[in-house]
């Protein structure tokens, strides 16, 4: 059951007689990069107790009394949104970060089906540029084979200005797109794998002062039809039920269509499809000869089915429908599959979050244009005065190039925001948009953060390293997803000191690392994902930064030596004066005593 923990959280609605509302927000393409001033935010509330939306003055909502509303903001920053409800218990307020990014166009990609191709034939990828706010429904749903009129207009403007896409495969191969007269670029990629996972990036060229966001795309090629085994049986909805369509959360081109006559599954947004059947394994086949399904959730390596009030698992490899010890076999009223790959809202009641995909890890990406030096350093010294824990002597750190990687070189006045990527083995998955923390693994403390808790709109004092390092815990153990507490939620009691540095970072925030302004220094940072809802893996990494630009004055040491010599000379004079005074005083006493005698 490898796929159960992959990317998705499945909300199991147990038989508890309470009424709850769930609310969420997203944008038209459910892409975290599109929460900008140029793009609309869709607000949705599920529940019968909705009254209206509460939102800041710098944002506009088309119908605040509708549970399904559209919001656009005119100012960047964290914007508080909250549904007002009639029930006694208030809904949680969320803080959406709306950026003023100029990156708001998207690369669209499609691989048209070539009926004459074989399994290993090269595949042609069509690419064009879309504006999510003006794209046609087929482009939004990833079913378009050619650009819409508006997208063709935008694409040709970019082309005339020198734009062209580059496809980068997970093998590191690159393929250039060549412009076609129908208003799209076309590139040829190998077709000798079951699927292609590639990254599309363009040139730093703008149109209407807006740029194109790099994109990640995955395409599965149709597999040769396999004869169904004698034991495989159909899956159907109850007779008379309406069609039910389920899409993959992280792979939107994968879908499952359930009907009362059978089930169809697709790996390319229904350009092609095949009937989905299961091997019943040890489960008894119902008398009607098929399993009646109530709901399904599509995961990366398999599917969860709700049959009656129990959950069953079908693995993509062995195709066997089976019970699983981590899934309940009774008392389940429904399953809820979240609609974003990285959740934008907390899920309620209970989760099935099991295990971690093998080889999943994070890496800190090298910022564009920043030098990254290898084997330029053997060791370095950390002054005891800048250590978090006091030491009697300075410490010498031997730099482990294999473990720490290359040194990111930056000017000491520059602010730095680590960009973190998620990987499965050597395959890039996506940018990490979750909260994270950093700390110097050797204990130096001569760095800080440019934003305060008040500046990032905390509603109470945020967690800090000082507050978390109690009870004798180490830096590695003191703070993590298991004890993370957001500061964007009101709690009883004092607000605390909101003028402290805010020590939690996020790729979309304005909180950056700042470095020592006294000495150029080398920092080896640990980074850890803090958000407990992001992943069930222990995601951490190491990166190193070396600052430069602080120069020691030519005569700085001479000044120190002169000061020491002057101090010693002054002490000598004082000592001599003291001895001379004592001698004179004793002589006077002796003279007086002799006079009186």
Automatic annotation (TrEMBL):
Mode of membrane association: Single-pass type I membrane protein
Subcellular location field: Cell projection, Cilium, Flagellum membrane
CATSPERD/E C-terminal domain boundaries: 389-578
Transmembrane segments: 558-579
Main location: membrane
Residues spanning the signal sequence: 1-21
Biological process, per Gene Ontology: flagellated sperm motility; sperm capacitation
Residue ranges of every copy of the CATSPERE second N-terminal domain listed in the record: 105-190
One Pfam family from the record: Beta-prop_CATSPERE
GO cellular component terms listed in the entry, alphabetical order: CatSper complex; sperm principal piece
Assigned keywords, A-Z: Cell membrane, Cell projection, Cilium, Disulfide bond, Flagellum, Glycoprotein, Membrane, Signal, Transmembrane, Transmembrane helix
Coiled-coil region list: none
Domain CATSPERE first N-terminal: 11-98
Tagged with keyword Zinc: no
Residues annotated as domain CATSPERE beta-propeller: 239-347
InterPro entries documented for this protein: CATSPERD/E, CATSPERD/E_C, CATSPERE_beta-prop, CATSPERE_NTD1, CATSPERE_NTD2
Protein family membership: Belongs to the CATSPERD family.
Name of the protein in its database record: Catsper channel auxiliary subunit epsilon
Species the sequence originates in: Hucho hucho
């Amino acid at each position: 059951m490898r796929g159960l923990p992959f990317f998705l959280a499945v909300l199991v609605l147990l038989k508890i007689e309470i009424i709850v509302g769930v609310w969420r927000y997203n944008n038209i393409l459910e892409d975290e990069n599109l929460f900008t001033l140029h793009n609309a935010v869709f607000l949705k509330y599920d529940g019968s107790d909705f009254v209206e939306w509460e939102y800041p003055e710098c944002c506009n909502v088309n119908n605040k009394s509708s549970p399904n509303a559209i919001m656009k903001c005119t100012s960047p920053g964290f914007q508080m949104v909250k549904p007002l409800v009639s029930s006694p218990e208030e809904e949680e307020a969320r803080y959406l970060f709306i950026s003023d990014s100029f990156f708001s166009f998207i690369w669209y990609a499609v691989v048209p089906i070539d009926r004459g191709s074989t399994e290993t034939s090269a595949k042609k990828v069509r690419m064009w540029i879309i504006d999510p706010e003006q794209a046609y429904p087929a482009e939004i749903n990833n079913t378009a084979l050619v650009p819409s009129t508006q997208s063709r207009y935008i694409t040709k403007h970019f082309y005339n200005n020198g734009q062209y896409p580059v496809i980068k495969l997970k093998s590191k191969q690159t393929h250039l797109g060549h412009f076609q007269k129908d208003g799209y670029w076309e590139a040829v990629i190998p077709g000798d794998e079951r699927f292609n996972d590639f990254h599309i990036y363009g040139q730093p060229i703008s149109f209407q002062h807006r740029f194109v966001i790099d994109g990640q795309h995955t395409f599965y090629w149709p597999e040769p039809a396999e004869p169904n085994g004698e034991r495989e049986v159909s899956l159907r909805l109850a007779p008379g039920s309406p069609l039910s369509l389920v899409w993959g959360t992280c792979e939107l081109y994968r879908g499952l269509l359930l009907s009362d006559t059978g089930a169809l599954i697709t790996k390319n947004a229904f350009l092609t499809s095949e009937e989905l059947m299961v091997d019943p394994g040890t489960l008894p086949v119902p008398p009607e000869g098929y399993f009646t399904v109530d709901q399904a959730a599509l995961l990366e390596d398999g599917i969860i089915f709700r049959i009656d009030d129990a959950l069953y698992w079908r693995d993509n490899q062995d195709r066997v429908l089976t019970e699983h010890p981590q899934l309940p076999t009774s008392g389940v009223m429904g399953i809820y599959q979240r609609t974003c790959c990285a959740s934008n809202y907390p899920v309620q009641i209970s989760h099935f979050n099991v295990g971690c995909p093998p080889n999943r890890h994070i890496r800190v990406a090298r910022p564009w244009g920043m030098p990254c030096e290898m084997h330029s350093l053997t060791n370095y010294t950390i002054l005891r005065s800048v250590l978090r824990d006091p030491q009697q002597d300075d410490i010498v750190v031997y730099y482990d190039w294999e473990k720490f990687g290359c040194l990111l070189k930056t000017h000491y006045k520059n602010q730095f925001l680590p960009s973190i990527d998620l990987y499965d083995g050597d395959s890039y998955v996506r940018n990490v948009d979750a909260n994270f923390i950093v700390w110097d693994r050797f204990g130096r403390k001569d760095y800080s953060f440019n934003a305060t808790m008040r500046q990032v709109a905390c509603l109470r004092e945020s967690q800090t390293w000082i507050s978390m390092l109690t009870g004798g815990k180490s830096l590695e153990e003191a703070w993590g997803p298991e004890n993370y507490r957001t500061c964007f939620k009101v709690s009883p009691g004092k607000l605390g000191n909101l003028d402290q540095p805010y020590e939690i970072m996020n790729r979309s925030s304005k909180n950056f690392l700042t470095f020592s302004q006294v000495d150029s220094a080398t920092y080896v940072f640990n980074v850890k994902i803090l958000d407990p809802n992001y992943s069930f893996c222990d995601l951490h990494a190491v990166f190193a930064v070396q600052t430069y630009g602080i120069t020691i004055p030519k005569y700085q040491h001479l000044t120190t030596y002169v000061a020491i010599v002057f101090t010693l000379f002054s002490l000598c004079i004082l000592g001599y004066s003291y001895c001379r005074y004592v001698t004179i005083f004793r002589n006077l006493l002796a003279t007086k005593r002799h006079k009186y005698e």
